[in-house]
Design goal:
4 helices
Length: about 280
């Protein structure tokens, strides 16, 4: 009994204290003229906010319209290539991480210019280099280089190649219109015609010279045309007969001429051919 009585007394005390606190808060003096401050954006601030929101919406619409117009003018689609057009030129720049210019491609009305350390053109199939150029050399990696101009190709300096070949069914011609044509090789120069003739034609003199070796003519028939004919008569009857056999004579200076063949040699060092040569 004592324990339960103590609990009831404590509950009464707590209830009394709560009642006192509640009555004290109700008896506090209240301000009669309390002012209420509205919360929000009103007046000219609200109108400015609406104006900026409307301006932002108009800017977005104009930007979207301009983007669609640019894509339409440039014919930019998924299936078609990208087309860049300009009244003057189109320039594409490449820069490094520091912003320095490392490459530039300019397409103008008169020329296409590329400024870079190395310029390469590669094949689309296997990626091999077809053309490359830098400060030291120009390399052409195509299987065939074809020059179709009427004047051909002009080189200011020497051209190095291990093989010069004409197209099938076409002639190969080496020509110097106003100067000499020189072919030199330390180990020999060979001219070979497998199924045709070899002709050497000149206006003045044709020299065959061997400083240490010999000149070898190997053929079934060797003809020396237009050799001068010397005069020799051993008897009056022989001059009336038709001469069909001649012998080749050599003058002391090396000149060849023909002399009518007889019983013995008819070559004479005092022949008019040798004297007037």
């Amino acid at each position: 009994m004592d324990r339960s009585t103590n609990l009831d007394i404590e509950e009464l005390k707590m209830t009394r204290e709560q009642y006192i606190l509640a009555t004290q808060q109700n008896n506090l003096p209240r301000a009669e003229n309390a002012q209420l401050y509205p919360v929000g954006i009103y007046g000219w601030r609200k109108r400015c906010l609406y104006f900026f929101v409307l301006l932002l919406l108009v800017t977005m619409i104009v930007n979207l319209a301009m983007t669609i117009w640019i894509l339409k003018v440039m014919n930019f689609t998924v299936d078609s290539p990208l087309v860049l057009q300009s009244d003057r030129n189109v320039t594409v720049n490449a820069r490094n991480h520091m912003g320095q210019l490392t490459g530039q491609l300019t397409v103008g009305a008169d020329a296409v210019e590329a400024q870079c350390k190395r310029f390469e053109v590669r094949a689309s199939e296997d990626g091999r280099v077809l053309f490359s150029a830098d400060e030291d050399e120009i390399t052409i990696g195509a299987e065939k280089l074809k020059v179709t101009g009427t004047e051909g190709a002009v080189f200011g300096h020497s051209v190095e190649t291990p093989h010069i070949r004409a197209e099938p069914s076409q002639d190969l011609r080496l020509e110097s219109p106003t100067r000499s044509l020189i072919m030199e090789a330390p180990r020999g120069v060979q001219v070979h015609a497998a199924a045709g003739d070899f002709k050497a034609t000149c206006r003045k003199e044709l020299h065959l010279q061997s400083t240490e070796g010999e000149i070898f003519l190997n053929a079934d028939t060797i003809r020396l045309g237009n050799l001068p004919t010397g005069s020799f008569s051993s008897s009056p009857s022989s001059s009336n007969a038709r001469q069909t056999v001649y012998e080749v004579c050599v003058c002391p200076n090396g000149k060849l001429y023909l002399s009518p063949a007889g019983v013995g040699s008819t070559c004479q060092s005092s022949s008019n051919i040798c004297l007037w040569s």
